[in-house]
Specification:
The structure holds two protein chains of two kinds. Chain A is mainly alpha-helical. Chain A contains twelve helices and no strands. The mean pLDDT of chain B is 87. Classes of the chains: A mainly alpha, B alpha/beta.
Chain lengths: 265, 261
Amino acid sequence: MNLHVISALVLRYLFLYTRTPMRLVELVFWPLVDLVVWGNVTVFIQKNSDAEFGGFILFFLGAMILWDVLFRAQQGVAISFLEDVWTRNLLNVFVAPVRTVEYLSATFFVGFLRILVTVVVMSLVSWLGYSFNIFQLQWWLLPFFLNLMVFGWALGMISTALILRWGQAAESLAWAVPFFIQPVVAVFYRVEDMPAWSQPFAWLFPATPIFEGMREVMKSGTMNWNHLWLAAGLNVIYLALAGWLFVWVLNMTRKRGLLTKFATQ
Amino acid sequence: MPAAIPDNREVILEARELTREFDGVKALDRFSFRLHRGEVLGLLGANGAGKTTAMNCLLGLTLPTSGELTAFGLPLQANRIQILRRANFSSAYTALPGNLLVWQNLLVFARIYGVPNPKKKIAELMEMLEISHLDKRVTGQLSAGESTRVNLVKAFLNDPELLMLDEPTASLDPDIADKVRKVVRKVQRERDIGILYTSHNMRDIEEVCDRVIFLHKGKIVCEGTPADIVAQSSSSNLEDVFIKIARDGEVVDESKKEETV
């Protein structure tokens, strides 16, 4: 793996963001809209419930911030790929000495930068506006953050593979894929509150033990280590499967001669 | 066709019996050729003749159904990255990201290719192509001629030994097309680059190419220097040869063929 190549690709995305500030607005605007809506709902529930529940209900805001870690990581991969499609640059990249792993690594790093921007802004606003401090999760925040980011990368590779397979007509998948799984990964409610039949499915995704863990830490200050191990183990599997899927689809598009059509359409 | 003069220069790109099928239709049919160091080889043919498929196979964008491809003596697929470091590509049908400034785009590619002192290299190439004044312009706002020359700067960034140019003068006015041809020829001679060149502009081919291959329905129908091909045909110039091949699928005048043999 060549770090010069990765840094060059990251530089290209950084140039893009500095040249088109509207992309930065997108990173901040929608998360803030969500935060304000959920923040106000939280305040309303707090005022109309007992003190214990009222304190606990703040987990909505924590869930929202952590969900954005996953979502922005996924977007980092999928949108970076689409940027190359939209600007008709994909062919230039694929005929340059860029390995698939280098290309993906650059999009992972872009995902990390996108997370930083969004999470910093959301954390500040939730602290100033709703007295919710995400850092009350203390050191647990780090494994939560890492696991969600890695799962976001895996979802990003899956989204990109699907777009490669079905062409630009399927580009809405870049935004839709995370929301396919949102209802079953217990972001805003506990697994035990989900319909019984769906609970086993919830534990198939690495995000579920993380959101369960977040609520646990906020409520009791302790964390079930098994949840963390489960999330990490599942992430290894998802990352490997998503990487395999991406490479398999890329090779298939080469075999079928679709890559050039896709890159120049 | 006269017996080919043996070319003792190093073979830098070779296709052997390359076939590519799409849904049972052969876009390339047992296509074989060699490109030598310092040679400009034109790949000609009407739309659908197989040029783009050949170019895509050579760039590793499309995998051949059968046949072998080597560059610098190495199998292409297994050594793709190593080969691409020594090669480059420019096409009228691809663009550098239109929302970045020219210098930003070129700097990104210079870094991808690991060019030492990239800013100096970019400035030199832009000066050579007479586009130094464009460095702070938005790439998407360039004219076709400017954009082509920026693409050529990108293509020359890594001092390629092998260059693939896909219709580099398409949509250019005659003046700019002439400048582009002259620059390509100048750089090619100075640096002994092997170039695979596709074009529908026969003036391009006559001025730039040492040798040409005409494709029709994925097969080679004739091969030689532009002058030889015209001489062997019943046509008066290369453009007529092109039209004849596109319509009839063959060009060589049998009587002239016998005379030359």
